[in-house]
Design brief:
Transcription Regulator spoIIAA; globular
Amino acid sequence: MTISLSGQLIYSDTTAFAAILKEVGDSKPKQCALSLRQLEHIDSSGLRMFFMLHDTCRENGAELRITQATGQVKDMLTHCKFDMLVKIDA
């Protein structure tokens, strides 16, 4: 399963992101790739959503992988040591 995000991921996106979490939980994929090529900005709420996705994947036996993170998004993931939990590909 591949999830692609674009624009920004901020507090106001919490409800929409909950639908993604439900889809992952319902479909129980073996792998989940989070493509961030078009995501330009993430705040602390967006980072929390990534942690929730990580937990949902883990609870359902799926491996989460992040791809194509750049700029501020990549900096945020690195600064928060998210790469210690999830493989982040270039």
